[in-house]
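May I ask for whichever protein you like with its backbone structure tokens?
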Amino acid sequence: MEKKEKKPKNLDFLMIGKTGNGKSALGNTILGRKAFKSKCSTSSVTKEIQYEVSEVDGRIIKIVDGPGVGDNRMDTENAIKLVMDQMTFAISAHPHGFHAFLLVVKFGGRFTEEDRETINFLKKIFGESFVKDYCILILTCGDNFQKESEDSGQTFEEWCDEQVGVFQELLQECGWRALLFDNMTRDEEIKKAQVKQLFKMVDRLTFHGHRYKDENFSKAHAARERLMVESKKQMIRDDTMIETSLIIQKLKKILDIDEPKESIEHLKDLMERTSLLYDNIKTQDNGTGALHDLVQTIESLKTTVQTEITIAQRIAIEKEKFSKEQKRTQREFDEERERWENEREEIKNQADYIERRYQEAKAKNDEGFFLKIASTVAWPFKALFGWN
């Protein structure tokens, strides 16, 4: 005789879905009492995590009504943080975990790309495989389906098989775990039958007795961090582009400075400013990679500034070398000129001496004496003109 699998005595559910899809009404149907307050207006959003408990068919059923997701207001940093904080609280406040996530959608509503983004949003919160492993798709407004099926004779399973696009992708991902709920019916037997069908599906889902627990939630931490950064990305991008533009403008002004030593000081200040911007972006990215493009942009800007510093330093070194060489050349020229002037002065003195002696000889009409003097003083002229 085969051993019968033991069903979990208690069942814990987390309801998630767009505001106005009937989560509260579904919770009341499952618990068999008006535990959650239904809100007809789609402008209202579940602000706090609520949970209720009832005993149903001898089993303790706990249902947590999560915040509404997929609303138009869920595209801002504060709204995303609110949902994430509340989902975090829902998981941490129920350490035993959940047997299933009840993903609540409204029958008759058109499933769009926005709904796909909502599912992706939930995956970033709970983990990439939470739909595949733990989700049951609940379609509310089952009374509308009953009206349509009276004419067509189509079953709910047949209707599911005909679906295409985003909704079909969701059905396939959750393993075709989909149930239709009519929460408006006054027929208690219909409600009980729906609930039993849900429990049966959950029992199959939890065949090995595993639940979605805090450790599952912890594994998705990196994705939630990235989600938060992405919610602020446009603001961070705008601030970064403004600062980047100002840095580039400053860089262009520095490049117009002729004195390299002066430009180096300004470039170092600019590098410090650029590095501060880079560190700020890295801090806000928090290792998620959501700001990778901005990080690369500022890395390139840092490289540009550093290159300009290197070029300015090389120019300063070469200019210093040229200045020293110029001073050395000038000194050598001055020394050579001084030597020439000294030699010329000596030659001039010798010429004056010859002139005086010549005049003296002429006066004495002593030709022999003149020739003697001429041979004595001729050597400076030979040295000057290279005569042999």
